[in-house]
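User: Quick sanity check before I run a bigger batch. Here is a single chain. Can you write out its predicted 3D structure?
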Amino acid sequence: MTILNAQTLPKHGPNIEFAALPSRLEIDEWPSAELYREYTFFAWPDSLVDTICSLTHTYLFFDLYDFTQYQTPDQIYGFASEILTMASRIAACPVRYFDSEIRLYEESTIEPECRTGANLKADILETLLFVAGKVIDAARNGKCLAIVGI
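Assistant: Done. Predicted structure follows.
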């Protein structure tokens, strides 16, 4: 299966960036890319967010239009828990729901023969589990989780 990110879905931005910073950025305004870019571990396309929310009939659990930092392990693990909850909602959705969301694969790097509802469900689940794992790694390694919205 495939991790759905800015590389596999290049035309589906703007992207929400997730970074594991060595420490909290002590700024009150939007950060410049130079401050976080080297620590970015995932770029989440906006259209993937729309698809997940549409499939699960829920709103996103964080503000995708904001710059947010989670400093403590408890905060970061709580964020990971929300991602895993979203994954459980996706897992509970019937495969037929994903057939109507195949357009997410348009202009992607996914091979045409792999653009099925079943594969989309698996790809979204794999993506959510990948992000949750990286978020947990950030907590485990004493990092600050930064979410740079769109």
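Residues 33 and 148 are 9 Å apart (CA to CA).

User: Great, the batch can go ahead then.
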